[in-house]
Each structure stands twice: as C-alpha cells, then as structure tokens.
Amino acid sequence: MKKISCFIFLFLPALIFAGQIDLSKASLLVSPATKSPVRETVIRMMQEETYKRTQMQLPLAENWKATTVIAVVLSSDQYLYGQPVPASAEETKQAEGFQVIQTTDGGRQTLWLIAADDRGAIFAAGYLLRTASMSKKKIVFDTKYAVATAPEYSLRGHQLGYRTTANTYDAWTKEQFEQYIRELVIFGVNSIETIPFHENEKIPDFMKETPDEMNRFISDVCRRYDIDYWMWTPAEGKLSDPAYYAAEKKRHVDFYQLCPRIDAVFFPGGDPGNNHPRYVMSFLKDLAAELKKYHPKAGMWLSLQGFSDEQIDYFYQYIQNEDPEWFTGVVSGPGSPSMSDTRARLPKKYKHRHYPDITHTVRCQYPAPNWDQAYALTLGREPVNPDPFYYAEIHNRYAPLTDGFLTYSDGTHDDLNKVVWSMCGWDTRTDVTEIVEQYVRFFFGTQPSDHVADAVLGLANNWNGAVERNGGIEMTFHRWQQLEKAYPQLQNNWRWQMFVLRAYYDTYVRRRKIYEQGLEKEANQILAQAPFIGAEKAMQQALDKVNEADRSNPSAAIRQKIVDYCEILFHSIGYQTSVEKYGASGKERGCILDFVDYPLNNRWWLADEFEIIRQMKTPEEQLARIEIIRTWDDPGKGSYYDNISNISQSLHLLTKSLYDACDVAWWDDGMSRKRLSTQLFQKSPVLLYKDLDPNGRYIIRIAGEGDALLRVNGERIAPIVYNKELETCKDFLIDRKYVSTGQMTVTFDIPEESHLNWRRQSKICDIWLLKQ
Q1: Residue range 142-167: mean pLDDT, rounded
Q2: What are the DSSP calls for 28-84, one per residue?
Q3: 133 & 235 share domain
Q4: What global pTM score does this model have?
Q5: End of a domain among 121, 149, 177?
C-alpha cells in the first residue's frame, strides 16, 4: 500500500496534533457521477456509521460553504460542484482503487476520497471509517493514513450461509445481515456467497425469514453495495437421473429469476454429492446458458474437491478438448487437489479461487497449530478463534496461486479472521498488528493507551502450547477483566462479548486442567498401593479422588461468567453455544457450553476400566492391569512416553510445519469415555530420541487403531505384536544398531485407506520407547 507524505502546517485546537484533521464539523460532498444506488449507499453508510460512534449527523451538502469537507469523487471527475478535483495517483486508474489526500484552500480543508470507480468510492469511504478516530462529538483523521491504493487480488469475499448448520447466521434479521455485509465491505470485501438450496432442513423457530427470501435480500444488498453475489449450489442427488437433473435445473432457474444480482455460481464437485464430471460439466453448461438469460455477466465455477484422480483427469481433458467459453474457473477448497497443481494444470484463461476454511480448528483444512489437548476437547471445532498472524500467513502463502478467495465460514466466531483475509487480499504487505488496530478502532472505539489490540492478540497466544506452561493466559484474562470494567458501554457489542467469553473460557480450561490432572496423579499414587491394600479398595479410593472434580469446582465463578456470556451472545446475535439450551444444529457447531465441564482427566475411562478389572478372574490379573493403568504415562527410568497429540506430553515429537497438527476423533457427540490420549491422534508423526543407551535393547509400543507402518532411521521395521483394535498395542523390537549413535528417528508411512471413511482410518495415539 503506497503512502503519500503530507507536509501541512495547520493551526488547530490543542487536542488536535500536527498531521491530524478535525472532521467533527465537516460536510459530506459526493460526486453526482457516482452511479445509483452506490451513491446513496456511500452517503447512508458514512452518515449512519459516524452517527453510531459520535452521535453527530454528518451533513450532506452540494456546495463548498463548509470550512471542512469530506469529498467523495471519481478519478474521472474534473470538478466537484465547481471546484477542481486534484490530479489522482496511478492507483485510482485501477479497478476498485482509491486515494485519500488532504488539501488546504484558503481557510477550507478538504479530505478527498478519489476513487477509480463506484466500488472504489465504497472502499474509500470504508477506509476513512476504519482509520478515523471517532468518539462522542469528535471525528479526527490522522494524515499518516493518507494513501493511494488498489487491491492486489480481484476476489475478496466470504461465505455467509443462511442455513441451520451455521452457529449464528440462521438467527439473524435482514437488518443484521446487511449490517454485517456493510462491515465486511468497510474492510475491503467485494464478494458475498450464500447457500440458497437446503436439503431436508428443519427450520428452527428463531429463523426470521425463509431461506429464499433471505438469500434474495442478500443478493439485493450486494446490488446496492455493488459487490458480487455468489451462490454455493451442490447437487446431492444423481445427475445421471433425468428426473433429478430436470428438477435441479428448474430449481436453479427459479432462483436465478428471483435474485436482483448474481455474479457467480459455484458448484462443489464431489463434496457433497457424488457425480462424475461427465454429468457435472453437462449440467453446468445447461445452467450457464440459463444463467446468462437473467444475469449476463455471471460466471460458472467448479471445485474438484471429492473427485478421484480419474475424475480430475476427465475434467482437465474436457477443458482442453472443449475450451468452454461458458466456464469461468476452478475453486480450491478442503479436499481439493493441491493449489499449485490446480494452477499449473488449469489453462491461464480460467480463474482460480481459494476456498479456505478459516472457521474450524480441528477436523479441517487448517487446524489450530500448537493447540493444547484440553482446548481441542472443550472448545471443539467452532470456538471464537481469532488468530490473525496464523491466518495472514496462510493467505499470503497461497494467494499467489489464485485470483483471490471467498472463505468458508459457518458463523461469526471467526470474525477477526474474515477481516484479516479481507485486508491481506487487498494488500499482502499489510501489517497484521495494524489490521487488529483498525478492527479495534472501528468496532470498539477504545483508546490506544488501553492496548485492546494487544488483549485480542493475547487470546491468540493463549492457544500457543501447553496451557499449564502458558502463564500468558492468566495475564490476558486479567487484562480482559480490567477492560470489562473500563468499558461497560461495550457490554452490548457482540464482538466484545465474544472476546471476553474466550478470555474466561481459556482461563477456566487452564485452571481445570491443572486441578483435574493433579487429582489423577494422586489417584495413580493410590493405585500403587493396590498390592498392599487390595485391588478393590485401591480402585475405589482412586476413583473417589479423580471424581473430586465433579464435587468441587475451584473456578465456579469463572464458569458462571461463561454461562452468562453464552446467554448474552444468544440474545445479541443468536450465537448457539448449546444444542439443548440454544437449539444449535449439532454439538460440533460451536457448542462450547455443552463441553465446558468435559473431563480433563481420565475419570470416565478409569471408571470403565475398573469395571472391566472387577470381572477378571484372579487378583494377579487385576493387579497387572492396574499397574499398566497407573504407569501409562510414566514407564520408568530409561523409558519414554509420548502422548503425541498432547503438547504437554510429546517432548520427542517433531513438528514438521505450521500446518501439521493433531486431529480429534469424534465419538458419541464429543462425549466419549475413551482415554483422553485416544481421542486425539496423528497419521504420520515424526519423533526424535536422544541420549539413548547405545548398548540398550528397546521396544517401541504404539497404541491407536488400525495400521502403524513404522520406520526407524528410515528403515521399515516388522512388528512382534500387532493388535489393530482401539487402545490395544503394537510392539516393535528395535535392533541395537539403530541406537548405536545414542539417538534414533521414528517415522510412519501413511497406509492407503482412501476407500475408508476418515473415522475408520488408522490412528496413532500413544508411543512408548521401553528400555528392556
């Protein structure tokens, strides 16, 4: 983003510093050349957003009588109401570009927003709104934000699906949708995608509109803001069936006629749906012809996600042979071929769009890195997840392979991530901290001295590493408690509510984990007495100890605040944090309240194991199993244990890249009674052991499910025990030659299991290196 230096000498009131312009009494002039309805939208957006923050009405004028003016013009304008328009920078000759510059003419100051086109006028107005400092009866613009800029990527958007699986949007009114779209536009978004077709969805009571009506309304909002309206439209039936083909085509055509604006139709190839591209391409060709009748400039897009290698090859052969003019481009999302391969194989005439998952933390395209097991089991898949540096890094890594993005989102919990992607899509060089600062300034209006941006970034740091070793969690919590008291007026701001909720939740998880795992250590000490006091007495005392977590909660006050904020968020934006209490469509859909007390020690597993032990025939068998349980994660001197998906207990695990992360199994709606280490897994971990005995004999033991294709120092090792059932073990005897240097590397090949559902594919959970 190119900055313009301004050397201006002003005599302003004491509270206005050099380089700042007081716009508190400015009039707004908007070029008549700006087309309707964009002109009306710019005026309404500027007036409404400034009034919310200042309680002042920004007056609209058609003359230059005011001594301070905000002038919105097009670079093609030579004059605005008789006054010459300054020569514009090169950026205002590029689509959507704009320039913000200040001039002084006699006693009048003018802040010029010079735009390349109508869209540029919207974005220039948004830029001023998010960079100006606004408080009651005050608007100040710092000339350090004077700029000449144009977007780096032509596609910058987000999917806002009005469907029951969203954890927020389905409870919204039309007014809430328009406000949210406006706010995204203010941060540079030029595209919104909806999901207009729904299969067998039960409409909840809190849904304010029918899907057809709301999606038509969103299309009209896009028309008024001059941004692109996209449709995500899978075919979940068989396109080889003529009856289904005809019905699906009619459904599309009916919706095309309904919408005021459509710019693109995105058809996900094989996810969902299971149609061969020979049927898909024929179907899309027919749809494209119908689409052009009602929306002549609209394009047709396809993703290859879910396609087999043969189906992908078929698609590229079709493109090469047919060279279809009706086809616009390919979308790369979760489960798609690599983005580099897609861009390399796709002819240059066709566009390439990223469809990144910025909304999920586990079982997803970009899992949360360095995440503590306790968060994975309680915060789950859709928590409030601000992680600006991580998502900026992902955007900037893959953006050069694309023409831009429309993200995959299922709620507002990823709101900051949306803004990060939006601004990085405009300019990949944008400083991430500055993005957060603009976010905080616009949505909270807090004072820079309060360092609210630092508090937001602290929430991201809460997720970095083992919670018990992350003292920053408590520091961030303390800061949010201070801010909670300092800004009572923000208690009605849903973004503020989400961040405060996360601060309480993170702290509650940390304190619970320390407390509950301390109880389990005490229980293991009790189990060590089993040979002396008897198996039954030891098991009962150990179970009583771990179950103290259910009888005593040292952090009950924090838990109540979590409950309170979940209630507040449901009423402010319909945020559904519970299935039973708030009607969420499923426990994976942001239901953090349903998991707020999920055990962070193994008390459920121990209770079940003890019942199995009680059925054993001899005391010797019982004691042997008790000994395995109590030494599970403490195999003794000279031996090592790694719970490879628990960052607290995986000291030998090597992280290969930012995107390597554990995955979380999903059994019993997230309420599994399995051992905690069993619920998280990896497919191909890499471990490095040092300081081994060069003359020692070792066994590698692996717990998980399915296959474990082990390599030691690059050589494949055959097992001596090979149980495939969950929580049973595989043993590999390690020849002394592998430890002769005192260190050893362990890797795993990934078995070919594409024919299996991911839930049934092989998992590696626990690894022991046992010295014999």
Answers
A1: 95
A2: EEE-TTSPTTHHHHHHHHHHHHHHHHHS----B-SSS-SSEEEEEEETT-SEETTEE
A3: no
A4: 0.94
A5: 149
